[in-house]
Amino acid sequence: MSTSTKKIIECVPNFSEGRDMGVIEKIAEVIRATEGVKLLDIDPGKATNRTVVTFVGEPEPVIEAAFRAIQKAAELIDMSKHQGEHPRMGATDVCPLVPVSGIEMEEVVEYARKLGRRVGEELGIPVYLYESAATSEERRNLAYVRSGEYEALPEKLKKPEWKPDFGPATFNPKAGATAIGARDFLIAYNVNLNTTSVRRANSVAFDVREKGRVMREGNPITGPIVRDESGQPKRVPGKCKAVKAIGWYIEEYGIAQISMNLTDISQTSLHEAFEACRESANRRGLRVTGSELVGLVPKKVLLDAGRYFLKKQRRSLGLPEEEIIRIAVRSLGLDELSPFEPKKKIIEYMLEEEGRDRLVSMSLREFANETASESPAPGGGSISAYVGALGAALGAMVANLSSHKRGWDERWEAFSRWAEQGQSIKERLLQLVDEDTRAFDAILEAFRLPKGSEEEKAARKQAINEATRYAIEVPLQVMETALSSFALLKAMTEEGNPNSITDAAVGALCARAAVRGAAMNVRINLGDFKGDEAFAADALRRVEQAEAQAADWERQIVELTQKALA
pLDDT category, 2, cuts 50, 70, 90? Predict the structure, then answer.
């Protein structure tokens, strides 16, 4: 029941049907019906006779939805009758898993293999692993895996080198074969130029993209092509790894763009691609006027961009997440062609559960009114978390003010690190505002369970104890998270902008109140907890230690403040 960062992955299966919307909708429906995933996009193509579906969620629900979709596609699509312009070898042709947040590629690879094993064993479909999940270097390349397409499968499957990674090495005429992989997030990104010339846009694209341009003697445009020993043209590589790019003209906007695919954002980030385009355009007498994101992106992409531009300005990075994203949007000009709405463009925001963080999304007045109502929640636990968040916010504020104080320019990075720490503590405590109320609700739900039979009584007793344990763990987290803000608050009292010393001191008072309030919640819930004496003893030890430390921190900070004011 922790509120730590969720592991989020994206799945982008390609199904070999792009004309019969009834079939497409039936496949989409099994994805929608899987609890814990969100279907983001369905993109059918008539000419390719292929549909690309995008959905996201935590790993287990995502691979369950993927399995159901592959199963449904195998039922509804007959590959022996399929015709289309796009290369394909199966009813579900490819099914890549993509890390979005809170998860590393190595773990995504394991989920891809888990899905592949299940598809092979339960559905009898030959499965080839590709990209990062591949079992050999050759199979990393999807084009190699799919060579010969569906028509080549009967003979390929007879050869030992083409033994599937999972599933039978026998031809499945209806479903074909499926490639399941793990790959990096692909970003479709366009950079706008103040020109209508496609040729000039292409010049920028060739400077930027990994494969660059063909090498020529003398004149780089009209000179003879330089070739290697085998007669192949030599190339001048572009600046950005894992970037594909081309120039084009968009009649709707009356401008030329550099259209890019960023295939590995660990090698070239969004802001690095933007800056490379800007530098090339400037050299060529052009100007980048803005840019455009096609589809959704992970939140980290825009946070990294915002922090990059803040660093260039020598400004503190310890700003609220929303403000960092606004900086990114302005700096990249993402709103030049149309309004940019983070809630509709960032995957994590699209996944936010309606009403999950109900209290934190309220206005101050609404939150105060809700607390003052006849409902027992939110109560002292949520208020303790919120007071602690305000204390950490004050510490971050003093650090941010100090980072751009006149004459302190050389210290901005140190204060920025303090501000980032304050923002992190604040965000965690804000999460715990609603988490504490959910803990209280869990206890109420447990008490509502039936208690007629002996089995029901035992189940109810266990549920009450588990909910009570949860209601102890949450305020313990509040207490210890609030306690961690004292180092920041003391540093800002001693080293921060002297005009804001009382703000840091008020933050310390808030932190102490948060620790004491959460400690009270732990103590009262320990009174109802049964069955795990070691856990109860450890919780009490942590409470006593935190209360003593908070009292000492508060005393030191108040004394420093009073001395400075004397």
Answer: very low
